[in-house]
Each structure stands twice: as C-alpha cells, then as structure tokens.
Amino acid sequence: MPVAAQVMRHASDRPHRLALCGPGGDLSYAGLAAGINGAARHLSGRGIGRGALAAISLADPVALLTAVLAADLVGATPLVCDPAWDREQRARVMDAVPVDTRITVPPPGEEGPPVRSGASPADRAWACFSSGSTGRPRAVVRTRASWTASFPYLDDLAGIGPDDVVLVPGPLVSSLYGFAAVHALATGATAVVPGRWPSASLAAHLRRSTVVHLVPHHLPAVLETLRESGGPLRTAVIGGAALPVESRALAADAGVRVVSYYGATELSFVAVDADGSGLRPFPRVEIEVRVAPGQTLGEVWVRSPWLSEGYLAGATGPLRRDGEGWTTVGDVAEPYRPGEVLRLRGRGDGAIQTGGATVVPEDVEEVLRRLPGVGDIVVVGSPHPHLGSVVTAILEAEGSSPPSRAALEALARGRLDAAQRPRRWYAVQSLPRTPAGKPARGLLAARLADGDPGFRRLA
C-alpha cells in the first residue's frame, strides 16, 4: 500500500491528529491528506503518473513530504533532491538523471474527487541520493515493498505507534531522515520535521517528542538537553555510523532506550541492536561475511527483501551483486556465523594501507574519541612515498584549544598497535558533514591533500 493511502486512512480515523510539525507550523492528518490529494490531481493533470520519475527539490520539509506523497499516490517515483545545491550542481545532477518532471515549488492544490491509486508493491516508489562527499552523488532507487514492508518490523523493535511524537532532526534528502519521517506518517504518529539540526529549538522539540531518530554524533546533545529541560523522550533510534559503547549507558541514565542499527542507503536495514547485546540481523535479513584466504576481516554480504534496485541512470558505486541474490557495498567485519553478533570494522573503501598493514579508520577513531577535549575525530590515509599511506587524524576540538599532540600520542601508544597510530595530527574548527550529519571523510581527505588552510597541524 502506498504511504499516501495510509495517510488517507489515518485522516479518516483521526482527522485532527497532528501529522507534521514543521518550521512553518503544524498540519493535521486531515490537512495533510487534502494537500496530498490536491497535489496529486495537479500531477495527474500534467501527465505524471505510474512509472514517471519526479525530481523534488523543496526546502520546506512539510511541502517536500506533501509532494513526495502526492507522487507516491499517483504511482510516480519521487527523487528527493537537496535544495541546498547551487544552480550549477543541480543542473549537472539533473542532466545525468532522466527525470520526467522537476518540482521546485510546492504543487498547487486542485479541487476534485479523491485520487485513486493503482500502485503496485513492485513499483519504484522512492529514490534518493547516497551521501557521497565528492563528485556527482549517486541516486539509489527502491521498490515500494522494499521500503514499506519493513515498517512493521521497526514498529516492533522500537515500540513506535500512532500515539508517538517522532522527532526527525535532519534534512529529508538523507535516506536516514527521509525514511524516519515517512515511517512515522505511515504509522499514524506525529512527525516533527525541522528540516535540519535544530540547535536553538532542540529543547522545545524534546519537550513534546517521545521518539527521536539520530546519527551517533547528535546523541550527546540530545541527552544533555533532556537533562536540562526534561521531556517524554523514551527511545532513540540511531543509524548512520557506529554507536560508541558508552553512549548507550549515558542514554540509559537519562531514561532513554537506544535502538541502533547498521545499514546503507543501498541495502536499507541490515542489522539491529535493540538491547545493547550487539548487532544481529534485522528481520528477514541473511548475512554472510566473506573472508578471503589469508585475511582476518571480510566483506559483509546481505540478502533480504529490503535491498534497493541499484543506481539510476547506470551510475556506478560501491554496490555489487552476485548471481544468488547477495549484495554488498564493501563494508568490513570480523568473521561471522548465523546466531552470532555482527562485529563491523568499517567501510572497505575507507581502509588505509600503510607499510603492508591494513588499518580500519573506525578502530582508531573509537579509541581517540575517549580523550577529553576531542569533540569528534576522523582518521584518513595521507600519501607517503615509502609506506603507501600514513594514518592521519583530524580533530574537531571542543573549544579553541585541542589536546596536545603529546597527550594524543600517549593515548595512541597505550591503546593502538604501531600501524594504527597516527603519524600526522591536524585540528579543524568543525568537521564538514554529510546531510545526514556524518563526517564527510572523502571531503576531508581531499581538502587535506589540497593544503586547505583551515587544517592546523599539531606540532
């Protein structure tokens, strides 16, 4: 069933229930249903229907979701674009993707009878861009069933229901936040969608929210704000990167249950940790870790109903398939057997080859984040004439002065193997991030190689 049809059902059952709370105000389910129907009639009148690809670029998250669900209702595939792209970047992306229509202003509502959907579970029902940091982003497309059939499993794992208020504090162009908002509406909950990280209004949002979707980087700010201002928050759903072990304990102290998951835009959900015992396969997911002879780590391969169809317009990327339905994006893990915990070790394309050793950046980052004064840290490889690459750490300092290099190296000597220890150390005022809030590792490496003056080398 299209999510739009589920919204119509909620509008019939609970018309005055708040559906969306955005920067411009609140919208009930009845109001949202009317907006979706009016926009769907407009799209149909322009010949946009089943199988069409609609590129949607709207800054207001409520207008964006209304347009996305209108496209969903008429059977088109909404392609969610980043409204922050400048004209040149937008033109470059659109020239490479064969869209049938571009929606850059909210579709006008047109009067008429309700739009009836002839959509199928196998239809392409959602497309968004993976969070590439450099070059042209890749548009990932998925079927309706691969998107919506996972909703009930997340409901059960996270305890999300129609009486919840779900905070989605990030840009909906990110698959993590876009999924969270659409899932909340399908469930009949209220979705709070500020459209970006709400630094100034976080306390106000938390005073009404029972569930929040986050990347790990933002969890400390949520817990600190919750301690200061209070609120009914009971569950944090965490994705996008590995969750530090101590974060779950801090959340428990604040009365917040953490449900963390591992996945990718191309793979959707792969594994989930709902109680702190470790990552285990998400429902209906099979996992293999394929370890090459002589290696200690292997690639994560997945088979499930939640996989995407791939990239639009023949774009290339990390997604690979074999002939038996298994798919990978090159993520790395320790050897795995069914029934065990999946122990991820990072992204395969981010591994650093240094002096014959392979270093997983996330392993180094996990250790170095424990030092007081380190707000966040990213580890990349820097070219070296003899070693191939050397491990390089880039710190986002909490305040004006980062920890001394001596303190950093002392921690590294005590906790890291020789090959893992950074040879070069830099500090930046703030790390560039992807729309989902994750550090933009590729962009950082490129800026460092270009001699960006914003990088201060620690002596």
From TrEMBL:
Superkingdom: Bacteria
SUPFAM superfamilies tied to this protein: Acetyl-CoA synthetase-like (SSF56801)
Gene3D superfamilies: 3.30.300.30, N-terminal domain of ligase-like
UniProt keyword Ribosomal protein present: no
UniProt xrefs under InterPro entries: AMP-bd_C (IPR025110), AMP-bd_C_sf (IPR045851), AMP-dep_synth/lig_dom (IPR000873), ANL_N_sf (IPR042099)
CDD domains, per the entry: AFD_class_I (cd04433)
Domain AMP-binding enzyme C-terminal: start-end pairs: 364-438
Residue ranges annotated for the AMP-dependent synthetase/ligase domain, each copy included: 9-103, 113-312
UniProt keyword list: Ligase
Pfam family, one: AMP-binding_C
Single Gene Ontology MF annotation: medium-chain fatty acid-CoA ligase activity
Annotated GO biological process: fatty acid metabolic process
Entry's family note: Belongs to the ATP-dependent AMP-binding enzyme family.
Official protein name in the record: Long-chain acyl-CoA synthetase
Species this protein is from: Streptosporangium roseum (strain ATCC 12428 / DSM 43021 / JCM 3005 / KCTC 9067 / NCIMB 10171 / NRRL 2505 / NI 9100)
Lineage of the species this protein comes from: Bacteria, Bacillati, Actinomycetota, Actinomycetes, Streptosporangiales
